Amino acid sequence: MNQHDRDRYRRNFEQYIYVIEFTSGVVKVGRTNTPQKRLAKHARTAQSHGVTISRSWFSTPHTGYGKNEMALIAFCAERWDISGGREYFGAADYEEIVQYANTLPMIALTEADIDKQAEHLAARSPKAHLLPQLWAQMKAAEITRESDAEFGRSDSDPLLEDIAPGFEHMEDVTADGLVAHHAAEALVNHRLRLKLNPHFDSRDWKKALAAATHHYGVALLLHEIQEYAGVHIADVIARKLWFAWNETDDDECTNDLEAWLTESDIDPSILTKMADVSHARLSDFKTLTRERLSPAEQSGEAK
Length: 303
Known about the structure:
This protein is an alpha+beta fold. It has two domains: 3-101; 134-145 and 156-266, no CATH class. The protein is built from 14 helices and four strands. The radius of gyration is 25 Å and the shape is globular. 22% of the residues are buried. Mean pLDDT is 78; it is low at 124-153.
């Protein structure tokens, strides 16, 4: 294994613990495998609340980061009040926390350790598909795009696929790429929903809401998996998602969903009956609507 691959795998097996102090006096502790991104994220969040970061400390990357994070949280919780979340502490002593954090065991993996862990990870068999057919179903729920001319769009205007393209082949899929693609889709539909009137544009508003929620959810989950489980794990899951969206058939979808529900002690047959009742009601409504229309309206000829 070359050094580049070792560094990539190291991010999966090691993380940093950190302490961040805000100008409000609140101190945040936690863990991450991307310290610069995490610091920038907290800086943006702080700015939105009218404060800034005054000091920050990050450990070296190490194993056992989960236990160290819990020890750090417990240390703070015994001394200061929680402020806005279990990892935030008001009027906490930043230097005392950093001093304690430096006493925690921080063991880095050797190159031989990384090679062994990587071989073990590669040998693990992949689990069943994660979200079968969700992509196709949600694509059908998105707002139908009208012609470019009706929107006044010119050939020089950028398309979403040019800004944040999807993937045509599974081997090219990355978590970063899917996060960007779904974040772009989510923002477009979110902005569209804000411009629509939920009373006068009810159908389009609901479709935009469904699409924005779906794309935001996928982007959020992949982003958090990348943050907490590492780049390699996130990329593996991203490829599984892509495969499920593009290759899973109806039978596989049914089998996976029923298996997951059974694992959670939920009887799938109950949900099947709910779907049957909903379908019957919808069919009755359509029948009633057709009966109220004239023959010309039913054939679509009425103006």
